[in-house]
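Hi R.,

Here's the input for the iron/sulfur cluster complex you asked about:
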Amino acid sequence: MKIVKLKKENLHPFLQAVSQDAELWAPVRLSNNKHSFQLIDDFSKIDLDYTRTILPPRKLFLPPEFNMFQASFQGYQEDYSHVTPKVLFGVHPCDLHGLLIFDQFHRQAFEDPYYLKARENTLVFGHSCWPDEYCFCQSTHTHIIEEGYDLFFSELDDYYLVWIGSSEGDDCLRLTPELFEESISEEDIKSYIAWQEKRNRAFQLHINFVSMPDLMELRYHHPLWEVLGQACLSCGSCSMVCPTCNCYNVNDHPVLGKNYSEIHRCWDSCMLENYSAVAGGENFREKRSQRLKLWYTHKLQAYISKYGKPACVGCGRCLVTCPVDINIYTVSRALEGEQVDAFWNRLANEVKQ
Ligand code: SF4
Ligand code: SF4
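And here is the predicted structure with iron/sulfur cluster in place:
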Protein backbone atom coordinates (compact mmCIF):
# COMPACT_ATOMS: atom_id res chain seq x y z
CA MET A 1 0.00 0.00 0.00
CA LYS A 2 1.33 3.41 -0.98
CA ILE A 3 1.05 6.57 1.14
CA VAL A 4 1.44 10.12 -0.18
CA LYS A 5 1.06 13.59 1.25
CA LEU A 6 -1.42 16.33 0.32
CA LYS A 7 -1.39 19.89 1.63
CA LYS A 8 -4.84 20.94 2.87
CA GLU A 9 -4.93 23.84 0.42
CA ASN A 10 -4.81 21.26 -2.39
CA LEU A 11 -7.82 19.27 -1.23
CA HIS A 12 -10.50 21.22 -3.12
CA PRO A 13 -8.54 21.29 -6.40
CA PHE A 14 -8.14 17.52 -6.08
CA LEU A 15 -11.86 16.99 -5.36
CA GLN A 16 -12.66 19.26 -8.31
CA ALA A 17 -10.57 17.03 -10.58
CA VAL A 18 -12.05 13.70 -9.40
CA SER A 19 -15.65 14.91 -9.55
CA GLN A 20 -15.55 16.15 -13.16
CA ASP A 21 -17.70 13.23 -14.34
CA ALA A 22 -19.22 12.12 -11.05
CA GLU A 23 -21.42 13.43 -8.27
CA LEU A 24 -19.43 14.46 -5.20
CA TRP A 25 -21.05 13.58 -1.84
CA ALA A 26 -19.53 14.74 1.44
CA PRO A 27 -20.53 15.70 5.01
CA VAL A 28 -22.37 18.99 5.34
CA ARG A 29 -23.42 20.77 8.57
CA LEU A 30 -27.22 21.21 8.69
CA SER A 31 -29.09 24.06 10.33
CA ASN A 32 -29.66 21.90 13.45
CA ASN A 33 -25.85 21.47 13.73
CA LYS A 34 -26.07 17.80 12.79
CA HIS A 35 -24.25 16.44 9.75
CA SER A 36 -25.45 14.65 6.66
CA PHE A 37 -23.81 13.27 3.52
CA GLN A 38 -25.06 15.62 0.80
CA LEU A 39 -24.54 16.20 -2.90
CA ILE A 40 -21.91 18.95 -3.12
CA ASP A 41 -22.35 21.87 -5.52
CA ASP A 42 -20.06 24.19 -3.56
CA PHE A 43 -16.83 22.96 -1.93
CA SER A 44 -17.14 25.48 0.90
CA LYS A 45 -20.16 23.48 2.18
CA ILE A 46 -18.01 20.43 2.96
CA ASP A 47 -17.53 20.24 6.72
CA LEU A 48 -15.04 17.62 7.88
CA ASP A 49 -15.28 18.72 11.51
CA TYR A 50 -17.93 16.13 12.36
CA THR A 51 -18.27 12.96 14.42
CA ARG A 52 -21.21 11.15 12.82
CA THR A 53 -23.80 11.90 10.15
CA ILE A 54 -27.51 11.37 10.93
CA LEU A 55 -27.79 8.53 8.41
CA PRO A 56 -24.90 6.26 7.50
CA PRO A 57 -23.47 6.31 3.96
CA ARG A 58 -25.43 3.18 2.98
CA LYS A 59 -28.19 5.61 1.93
CA LEU A 60 -26.17 6.31 -1.23
CA PHE A 61 -26.01 2.66 -2.25
CA LEU A 62 -29.54 1.60 -1.36
CA PRO A 63 -31.65 4.78 -1.06
CA PRO A 64 -34.53 4.82 1.46
CA GLU A 65 -36.91 4.18 -1.47
CA PHE A 66 -36.23 3.40 -5.13
CA ASN A 67 -37.86 1.64 -8.07
CA MET A 68 -36.34 -1.81 -8.67
CA PHE A 69 -38.26 -2.60 -11.86
CA GLN A 70 -41.40 -1.98 -13.88
CA ALA A 71 -43.69 -5.00 -14.17
CA SER A 72 -46.41 -5.53 -16.79
CA PHE A 73 -48.14 -8.48 -18.44
CA GLN A 74 -45.34 -8.41 -21.04
CA GLY A 75 -42.58 -8.91 -18.48
CA TYR A 76 -40.38 -6.65 -16.41
CA GLN A 77 -37.69 -4.05 -16.94
CA GLU A 78 -35.07 -3.34 -14.30
CA ASP A 79 -34.46 0.25 -13.25
CA TYR A 80 -30.96 1.27 -12.17
CA SER A 81 -31.55 5.00 -12.30
CA HIS A 82 -30.44 5.32 -8.66
CA VAL A 83 -26.97 4.20 -9.80
CA THR A 84 -24.89 7.18 -10.93
CA PRO A 85 -21.11 7.68 -10.84
CA LYS A 86 -20.29 9.07 -7.40
CA VAL A 87 -17.35 10.10 -5.27
CA LEU A 88 -18.17 9.71 -1.59
CA PHE A 89 -15.72 11.74 0.48
CA GLY A 90 -15.15 12.01 4.22
CA VAL A 91 -16.26 8.57 5.44
CA HIS A 92 -15.02 7.64 8.91
CA PRO A 93 -13.49 4.20 9.67
CA CYS A 94 -16.59 2.88 11.50
CA ASP A 95 -18.78 3.66 8.48
CA LEU A 96 -16.25 2.07 6.13
CA HIS A 97 -16.54 -1.07 8.26
CA GLY A 98 -20.33 -0.74 8.00
CA LEU A 99 -19.99 -0.83 4.21
CA LEU A 100 -17.74 -3.91 4.46
CA ILE A 101 -20.47 -5.65 6.49
CA PHE A 102 -22.98 -4.52 3.86
CA ASP A 103 -20.72 -5.94 1.12
CA GLN A 104 -20.61 -9.28 2.93
CA PHE A 105 -24.36 -9.35 3.40
CA HIS A 106 -25.21 -8.39 -0.19
CA ARG A 107 -22.69 -10.76 -1.77
CA GLN A 108 -23.22 -13.94 0.23
CA ALA A 109 -26.09 -16.36 -0.54
CA PHE A 110 -27.69 -14.06 -3.13
CA GLU A 111 -25.95 -11.23 -4.95
CA ASP A 112 -27.95 -8.03 -4.74
CA PRO A 113 -27.46 -6.29 -8.12
CA TYR A 114 -28.95 -2.99 -6.93
CA TYR A 115 -26.40 -2.66 -4.17
CA LEU A 116 -23.44 -4.08 -6.07
CA LYS A 117 -23.93 -1.88 -9.15
CA ALA A 118 -24.09 1.21 -6.94
CA ARG A 119 -20.97 0.07 -5.07
CA GLU A 120 -19.06 -0.48 -8.35
CA ASN A 121 -19.97 3.04 -9.47
CA THR A 122 -18.84 4.79 -6.30
CA LEU A 123 -15.34 5.82 -5.29
CA VAL A 124 -15.08 5.87 -1.50
CA PHE A 125 -12.63 8.25 0.19
CA GLY A 126 -12.26 7.77 3.95
CA HIS A 127 -11.26 10.44 6.46
CA SER A 128 -9.81 10.26 9.97
CA CYS A 129 -11.94 11.23 12.97
CA TRP A 130 -11.88 11.97 16.68
CA PRO A 131 -14.17 10.14 19.15
CA ASP A 132 -16.83 11.84 21.23
CA GLU A 133 -18.47 10.44 24.37
CA TYR A 134 -20.76 8.15 22.31
CA CYS A 135 -18.10 6.49 20.11
CA PHE A 136 -16.93 3.01 21.09
CA CYS A 137 -15.49 1.74 17.80
CA GLN A 138 -12.29 0.83 19.65
CA SER A 139 -14.31 -1.98 21.32
CA THR A 140 -15.43 -3.29 17.92
CA HIS A 141 -11.94 -2.82 16.38
CA THR A 142 -13.48 -0.59 13.75
CA HIS A 143 -11.58 2.56 14.78
CA ILE A 144 -8.92 1.71 12.21
CA ILE A 145 -9.36 0.52 8.64
CA GLU A 146 -7.13 -1.45 6.32
CA GLU A 147 -9.43 -2.10 3.36
CA GLY A 148 -12.73 -1.00 1.87
CA TYR A 149 -11.68 2.43 0.59
CA ASP A 150 -10.09 3.84 -2.55
CA LEU A 151 -8.28 6.62 -0.68
CA PHE A 152 -8.06 7.40 3.02
CA PHE A 153 -7.17 10.88 4.28
CA SER A 154 -5.49 11.10 7.70
CA GLU A 155 -5.57 14.71 8.85
CA LEU A 156 -2.37 16.05 10.46
CA ASP A 157 -1.88 19.79 11.11
CA ASP A 158 -1.92 21.47 7.68
CA TYR A 159 -1.69 18.36 5.52
CA TYR A 160 -3.05 14.86 4.98
CA LEU A 161 -1.32 11.54 4.76
CA VAL A 162 -3.26 9.82 1.98
CA TRP A 163 -3.47 6.00 1.93
CA ILE A 164 -4.07 4.52 -1.52
CA GLY A 165 -6.39 1.52 -1.09
CA SER A 166 -7.18 0.50 -4.67
CA SER A 167 -6.02 0.86 -8.26
CA GLU A 168 -9.00 3.20 -8.83
CA GLY A 169 -7.71 5.37 -5.98
CA ASP A 170 -4.29 5.39 -7.60
CA ASP A 171 -5.88 6.47 -10.91
CA CYS A 172 -7.51 9.40 -9.07
CA LEU A 173 -4.13 10.66 -7.84
CA ARG A 174 -2.76 10.45 -11.38
CA LEU A 175 -5.32 13.08 -12.46
CA THR A 176 -3.39 15.74 -10.50
CA PRO A 177 0.03 14.30 -9.60
CA GLU A 178 1.40 17.82 -9.10
CA LEU A 179 -0.79 18.23 -5.98
CA PHE A 180 0.78 15.30 -4.11
CA GLU A 181 4.18 14.76 -2.51
CA GLU A 182 5.68 11.28 -2.55
CA SER A 183 8.20 11.69 0.25
CA ILE A 184 7.06 11.16 3.82
CA SER A 185 9.55 12.52 6.35
CA GLU A 186 10.51 11.08 9.74
CA GLU A 187 8.77 14.08 11.28
CA ASP A 188 5.52 13.17 9.44
CA ILE A 189 5.73 9.62 10.75
CA LYS A 190 6.30 10.84 14.33
CA SER A 191 3.34 13.23 14.04
CA TYR A 192 1.14 10.40 12.82
CA ILE A 193 2.18 8.07 15.68
CA ALA A 194 1.62 10.83 18.27
CA TRP A 195 -1.83 11.58 16.80
CA GLN A 196 -2.78 7.89 16.85
CA GLU A 197 -1.66 7.40 20.46
CA LYS A 198 -3.57 10.49 21.58
CA ARG A 199 -6.68 9.30 19.74
CA ASN A 200 -6.43 5.82 21.27
CA ARG A 201 -6.51 7.42 24.72
CA ALA A 202 -9.48 9.64 23.84
CA PHE A 203 -12.08 6.84 23.74
CA GLN A 204 -14.35 7.12 26.77
CA LEU A 205 -16.87 4.36 26.11
CA HIS A 206 -16.09 0.64 26.01
CA ILE A 207 -18.22 -2.47 25.56
CA ASN A 208 -17.06 -6.01 26.21
CA PHE A 209 -18.42 -7.70 23.08
CA VAL A 210 -16.56 -10.96 23.76
CA SER A 211 -19.00 -12.03 26.46
CA MET A 212 -22.15 -10.85 24.66
CA PRO A 213 -23.07 -14.08 22.76
CA ASP A 214 -23.00 -16.04 26.04
CA LEU A 215 -24.91 -13.36 27.93
CA MET A 216 -27.56 -13.19 25.20
CA GLU A 217 -28.00 -16.96 25.58
CA LEU A 218 -28.01 -16.89 29.38
CA ARG A 219 -30.50 -14.01 29.57
CA TYR A 220 -32.68 -15.03 26.65
CA HIS A 221 -35.69 -15.49 28.96
CA HIS A 222 -34.71 -12.76 31.41
CA PRO A 223 -37.39 -10.20 32.46
CA LEU A 224 -35.16 -7.36 31.20
CA TRP A 225 -36.62 -7.85 27.72
CA GLU A 226 -40.13 -7.17 29.02
CA VAL A 227 -38.88 -4.02 30.77
CA LEU A 228 -37.21 -2.84 27.58
CA GLY A 229 -40.32 -3.72 25.60
CA GLN A 230 -42.39 -1.48 27.90
CA ALA A 231 -40.08 1.44 27.21
CA CYS A 232 -39.53 0.96 23.47
CA LEU A 233 -41.69 3.21 21.28
CA SER A 234 -41.33 0.88 18.30
CA CYS A 235 -40.32 3.87 16.19
CA GLY A 236 -37.64 2.00 14.22
CA SER A 237 -35.18 4.91 14.45
CA CYS A 238 -32.41 2.64 15.75
CA SER A 239 -32.61 0.62 12.52
CA MET A 240 -32.80 3.63 10.22
CA VAL A 241 -29.56 5.13 11.58
CA CYS A 242 -27.58 1.90 11.95
CA PRO A 243 -24.89 1.35 9.28
CA THR A 244 -25.38 -2.44 9.39
CA CYS A 245 -29.20 -2.71 9.38
CA ASN A 246 -30.59 -3.94 6.09
CA CYS A 247 -34.30 -4.84 6.49
CA TYR A 248 -36.41 -3.73 3.56
CA ASN A 249 -39.91 -4.11 2.14
CA VAL A 250 -41.18 -4.26 -1.44
CA ASN A 251 -44.35 -2.46 -2.54
CA ASP A 252 -46.33 -2.36 -5.79
CA HIS A 253 -47.02 1.12 -7.17
CA PRO A 254 -49.46 0.90 -10.10
CA VAL A 255 -48.77 3.75 -12.54
CA LEU A 256 -52.09 5.35 -13.41
CA GLY A 257 -52.80 5.51 -17.14
CA LYS A 258 -49.99 3.05 -17.97
CA ASN A 259 -50.04 -0.70 -18.19
CA TYR A 260 -47.39 -1.36 -15.59
CA SER A 261 -46.54 -1.13 -11.92
CA GLU A 262 -43.35 0.12 -10.37
CA ILE A 263 -41.97 -2.24 -7.75
CA HIS A 264 -40.46 -0.09 -5.05
CA ARG A 265 -37.96 -1.19 -2.44
CA CYS A 266 -37.93 0.82 0.79
CA TRP A 267 -36.12 0.69 4.10
CA ASP A 268 -37.95 -1.21 6.79
CA SER A 269 -37.17 -2.32 10.32
CA CYS A 270 -37.64 -5.55 12.24
CA MET A 271 -38.44 -3.23 15.18
CA LEU A 272 -41.73 -2.27 13.51
CA GLU A 273 -44.82 -4.34 14.23
CA ASN A 274 -45.85 -4.92 10.61
CA TYR A 275 -42.48 -6.31 9.61
CA SER A 276 -43.39 -9.76 10.94
CA ALA A 277 -47.06 -9.69 9.91
CA VAL A 278 -48.00 -12.36 7.42
CA ALA A 279 -51.11 -13.32 5.45
CA GLY A 280 -53.92 -14.67 7.61
CA GLY A 281 -53.46 -12.07 10.31
CA GLU A 282 -50.55 -13.77 12.09
CA ASN A 283 -47.62 -11.84 13.48
CA PHE A 284 -44.59 -13.78 14.63
CA ARG A 285 -43.12 -10.92 16.67
CA GLU A 286 -46.13 -9.00 17.85
CA LYS A 287 -44.57 -7.84 21.13
CA ARG A 288 -41.98 -5.08 21.28
CA SER A 289 -39.89 -7.21 23.67
CA GLN A 290 -39.69 -9.96 21.02
CA ARG A 291 -38.58 -7.50 18.35
CA LEU A 292 -35.94 -5.97 20.61
CA LYS A 293 -34.61 -9.40 21.44
CA LEU A 294 -34.32 -10.21 17.73
CA TRP A 295 -32.46 -6.94 16.98
CA TYR A 296 -29.96 -7.51 19.76
CA THR A 297 -29.60 -11.22 19.00
CA HIS A 298 -28.56 -10.23 15.48
CA LYS A 299 -26.11 -7.55 16.64
CA LEU A 300 -24.62 -9.27 19.69
CA GLN A 301 -24.88 -12.98 19.09
CA ALA A 302 -25.78 -14.34 15.63
CA TYR A 303 -23.33 -12.23 13.62
CA ILE A 304 -20.51 -12.87 16.10
CA SER A 305 -21.17 -16.63 15.94
CA LYS A 306 -21.12 -16.59 12.12
CA TYR A 307 -18.43 -14.03 11.31
CA GLY A 308 -16.47 -13.59 14.53
CA LYS A 309 -17.41 -9.93 14.91
CA PRO A 310 -20.53 -8.04 16.03
CA ALA A 311 -22.96 -6.48 13.55
CA CYS A 312 -22.12 -3.19 15.22
CA VAL A 313 -19.31 -0.84 14.24
CA GLY A 314 -19.45 1.36 17.34
CA CYS A 315 -20.66 4.50 15.55
CA GLY A 316 -22.83 5.60 18.49
CA ARG A 317 -25.82 6.52 16.30
CA CYS A 318 -28.31 4.40 18.28
CA LEU A 319 -27.00 6.06 21.47
CA VAL A 320 -27.78 9.56 20.24
CA THR A 321 -31.01 8.59 18.44
CA CYS A 322 -33.20 6.36 20.63
CA PRO A 323 -35.64 8.64 22.49
CA VAL A 324 -35.80 6.25 25.48
CA ASP A 325 -32.12 5.32 25.79
CA ILE A 326 -32.38 1.76 24.57
CA ASN A 327 -29.16 1.26 22.68
CA ILE A 328 -26.29 -1.13 22.25
CA TYR A 329 -24.48 0.33 25.28
CA THR A 330 -27.38 0.30 27.76
CA VAL A 331 -28.55 -3.14 26.59
CA SER A 332 -25.04 -4.59 26.91
CA ARG A 333 -24.82 -3.16 30.44
CA ALA A 334 -28.22 -4.64 31.27
CA LEU A 335 -27.04 -8.02 29.94
CA GLU A 336 -24.06 -7.71 32.29
CA GLY A 337 -26.54 -7.42 35.14
CA GLU A 338 -26.44 -3.69 35.79
CA GLN A 339 -29.44 -1.49 36.39
CA VAL A 340 -27.99 1.30 34.34
CA ASP A 341 -30.91 3.53 33.56
CA ALA A 342 -33.30 5.24 35.92
CA PHE A 343 -35.95 5.23 33.23
CA TRP A 344 -35.84 1.47 33.04
CA ASN A 345 -35.90 1.22 36.82
CA ARG A 346 -39.05 3.30 36.89
CA LEU A 347 -40.62 1.10 34.27
CA ALA A 348 -39.44 -2.04 36.04
CA ASN A 349 -41.23 -0.87 39.20
CA GLU A 350 -44.34 -0.05 37.23
CA VAL A 351 -44.30 -3.50 35.67
CA LYS A 352 -44.03 -5.12 39.16
CA GLN A 353 -46.98 -3.16 40.57
S1 SF4 B 1 -25.83 -0.86 16.82
FE1 SF4 B 1 -25.73 1.36 17.28
S2 SF4 B 1 -23.55 1.82 17.62
FE2 SF4 B 1 -23.67 -0.21 16.63
S3 SF4 B 1 -23.44 0.24 14.43
FE3 SF4 B 1 -25.66 0.20 14.84
S4 SF4 B 1 -26.20 2.36 15.30
FE4 SF4 B 1 -23.94 2.19 15.42
S1 SF4 C 1 -35.19 0.87 20.72
FE1 SF4 C 1 -35.46 3.13 20.73
S2 SF4 C 1 -35.05 3.82 18.61
FE2 SF4 C 1 -35.36 1.57 18.57
S3 SF4 C 1 -37.56 1.29 18.08
FE3 SF4 C 1 -37.38 1.28 20.35
S4 SF4 C 1 -37.69 3.43 20.95
FE4 SF4 C 1 -37.28 3.47 18.74
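One thing worth noting: The chain has a mean pLDDT of 94.

Cheers,
M.
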